[in-house]
């Protein structure tokens, strides 16, 4: 499998603008503080700073000459002082047809007004709105803790925006039988996200799943620490290694940014692919996100999560149980990377299901979703995967949301007609999702 873009390729550009009517010394002092702040821990290597202060057309051109716009994920414009829309027109001229997300950075002045930055941002924001441009507001001074979090989230969202726009999603087969809520109109998703769905038949895919015995033997070692309820551990590992190697060989032939695969019933119950669900869990570690059950929007969501954090292992999950007394939900699914396990891995006698408890830690549930009217929206909720182990089979655990109780979350999810899948990713990414929603110009449903 091969991805078309690397989230490490781009950074967020930062340009400073000011008016000759305000003290240049104040603006230059802000540039120095901001540049130091953007190089600090948690933000380093995510921003490309144009050190030239843009105060007129000529200096604006010099500032943009310090940036490679084609390699940027987004552009932050700090109004180091109030500035009229004359410079905004210059900025837009430099951007041209590039669809870079824009953030306007306003400074916080609590008493004496030195820069009048906030008023300038209001002027620029209303002008962008009239031009039909989406924008994000960043508010605060360099070294503000909350601003640091917001800057990191904006950078993460910008990576996701770049990764999604123009992405190619391979759909192997179709959605699972009668999972009609997962159906996606290729024209609709192209219109909203510039995403192309490239579909291939299961027959063609399986025809490409051929591999040498040596590869099967190597793959079987992935289950060296797993136990087998059937008793014959070595035979189980051999079978799983064969299925993993064959599926990997077929996936290697697909050039896409993310893949949605119809894994059952055709592959799951095929004699030569016994242990498909366990193999999919191991395959989810690979660089190209993989969504089972033919869930195209699940694949797109996983693509965004991987852009937030390239090392993350997002996984598709069902919200399958609720414990109202203890305010927690049961997350439960197959195809989850065993690197997320916090306990032993076991496989049932027929090798259909691999079971392990999910590790504890902060977790975000999210989903890019298409409504019945064809409009795009995003669901997100942060919380904790609890340390207490669930007794459910497959990859399972207890999730407790932060901002709402468990019943409120699941009732809202159902009442709003969201598909029965969410993508889970460790970490707290709700703020990044909110930024991504503004960049895409879509509703974010933050629960």
TrEMBL record:
Which superkingdom is the protein from? Bacteria
What InterPro entries has UniProt attached to this entry?
A: Fuc_isomerase_C (IPR015888), Fucose_isomerase_N/cen_sf (IPR009015)
Protein source organism: Mesorhizobium retamae
Query: Could you confirm whether the keyword Isomerase appears in this record?
Result: yes
Protein's name in the database? L-fucose isomerase C-terminal domain-containing protein
The alphabetized UniProt keywords are: Carbohydrate metabolism, Isomerase
Q: Which residues form the L-fucose isomerase C-terminal domain?
A: 359-445
């Amino acid at each position: 499998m091969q991805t078309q873009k690397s989230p490490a390729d781009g950074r967020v550009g930062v340009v400073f603008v000011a008016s000759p009517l305000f003290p240049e010394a104040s603006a230059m002092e802000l540039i120095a503080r901001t540049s130091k702040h953007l190089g600090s821990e948690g933000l380093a290597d995510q921003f490309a700073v144009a050190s030239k202060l843009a105060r007129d057309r000529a200096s604006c051109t010099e500032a943009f000459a310090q940036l490679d716009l084609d390699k940027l994920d987004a552009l932050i414009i700090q109004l180091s002082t109030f500035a009229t829309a004359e410079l905004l027109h210059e900025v837009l001229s430099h951007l041209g047809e590039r669809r870079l997300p824009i953030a306007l950075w306003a400074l916080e002045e609590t008493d004496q007004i030195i820069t009048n930055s906030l008023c300038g941002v209001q002027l620029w924001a209303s002008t962008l709105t009239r031009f039909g441009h989406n924008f994000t507001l960043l508010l605060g001074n360099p070294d503000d803790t909350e601003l640091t979090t917001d800057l990191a989230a904006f950078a993460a969202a910008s990576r996701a925006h770049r990764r999604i726009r123009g992405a190619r999603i391979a759909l192997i087969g179709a959605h699972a039988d009668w999972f009609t809520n997962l159906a996606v109109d290729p024209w609709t998703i192209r219109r909203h996200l510039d995403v192309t769905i490239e579909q291939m038949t299961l027959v063609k895919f399986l025809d490409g799943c051929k591999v040498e015995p040596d590869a099967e033997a190597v793959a079987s070692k992935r289950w060296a620490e797993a136990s087998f309820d059937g008793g014959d551990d070595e035979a189980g590992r051999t079978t799983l290694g064969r299925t993993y190697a064959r599926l990997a060989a077929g996936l290697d032939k697909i050039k896409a940014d993310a893949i949605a695969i119809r894994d059952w019933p055709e592959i799951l119950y095929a004699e030569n692919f016994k242990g498909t669900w366990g193999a999919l869990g191991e395959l989810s570690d690979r660089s190209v996100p993989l969504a089972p059950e033919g869930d195209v929007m699940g694949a797109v969501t996983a693509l965004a999560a991987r852009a937030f954090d390239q090392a993350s292992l997002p996984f598709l999950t069902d919200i399958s149980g609720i414990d109202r007394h203890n305010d927690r939900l049961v997350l439960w699914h197959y195809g989850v990377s065993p690197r997320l396990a916090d306990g032993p891995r076991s496989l049932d006698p027929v090798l259909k299901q691999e079971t392990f408890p999910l590790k504890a830690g902060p977790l975000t549930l999210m989903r890019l979703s298409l409504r019945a009217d064809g409009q795009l929206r995003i669901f997100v909720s942060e919380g904790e995967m609890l340390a207490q182990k669930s007794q459910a089979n497959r990859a399972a655990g207890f999730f407790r949301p932060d901002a709402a109780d468990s019943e409120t979350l699941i009732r809202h999810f159902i009442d709003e007609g969201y598909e029965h899948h969410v993508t889970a990713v460790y970490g707290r990414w709700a703020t990044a999702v909110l930024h991504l929603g503004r960049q895409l110009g879509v509703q974010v449903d933050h629960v």
